[in-house]
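User: As part of a screening pipeline, I want to sanity-check one entry by hand. Below is the sequence and the SMILES for adenosine-5'-diphosphate. Please return the complex as structure tokens so I can compare it with the automated output.
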Amino acid sequence: MIEAKSLTKQYGDFTAVDGLSFTVNEGEVLGFLGPNGAGKSTTMKMLSGFLTPSSGTASIQGHDLTGDTLALRRCIGYLPEGAPLYGEMTVRQFLQFVARARSLSGSDAKRSVAQTMQRLNLEPVSSQTIETLSKGYKRRVGLAQAILHDPQVLILDEPTDGLDPNQKHEVRRLIRGMAEDKIIIISTHILEEVEALCSRAMIIAEGRLLVDDTPRGLVRRSRYHNAITLVVDHPQQAASALSELPETARVELKEHELTVFPQPDADLLAAVTGAVDMHRWTVSELRWESGRLDEVFREITGRAQQRGTV
Ligand SMILES: Nc1ncnc2c1ncn2[C@@H]1O[C@H](COP(=O)(O)OP(=O)(O)O)[C@@H](O)[C@H]1O
Ligand SMILES: [Mg+2]
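Assistant: Here is the complex for your manual check:
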């Protein structure tokens, strides 16, 4: 379990992380979501014992940040942002080096290196020096060093940054596969990643926690939750007819898309399809919306900025 209490980091007068408190339990994949400069990396560095908090504390699997940092680091795998690596080493040499640094014995080290390379599909480049690798492979080497000792806690700073869509998919699959018996914290500014990967998301801006919720819970905060968006041949006529329905709260016409927002608990889908049938409009698109995460994100981080609360 991870327990953070009022974690704070100041650089001079500037507060990068401002009193973050949260707990994370086994089996959770927690996403730190926030704009650039929100304090995600700084928080992760503190949790991994690489940066001392200005105030506040955290404990990981019972080890306090300010106590035995060696024991703390043993139970953590950390992928730093940008994943600095030793460019002149080959992939195999680097992972063997990491295994030694993790105090794995000869046979354990060999097995861990082999398994990890297989898991991350690094075998084809095992004899290549790291500086000659593509960005995607470098990121995977970074992940390999983080998971090599099979830690209970994984702290991964933008794990899919710079990867192409196939590689992103692969890395997400890998992370999901490890989630069951671990605690995983990832940071991202990619909203789809939160939905694809996280069981829980914390939206952070300017060092403060704004929202802590499940991805589904976040999406439900969207004003588009349960709205219906459609593209019809007579949008103006449809807009005025649909706005008359008792199930409709409001209609918005943007470019060629018509969005109908429901009254609370109304069966809007039946009402809209009924109206479409009756008026014989030609519908080229119709979607029932679960909600738009990007809108929620902008709403939450923008509102905080406007109020000057962050
Ligand atoms: N060593 C440092 N000295 C001064 N300011 C820093 C330092 N490291 C980070 N910051 C500032 O702290 C804020 C949070 O940074 P960071 O944690 O990297 O954000 P994120 O990872 O969410 O993009 C930023 O405004 C950044 O410029
Ligand atoms: Mg960062």
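Points to compare against the pipeline: The mean pLDDT is 92. The two ends are 28 Å apart (CA to CA).
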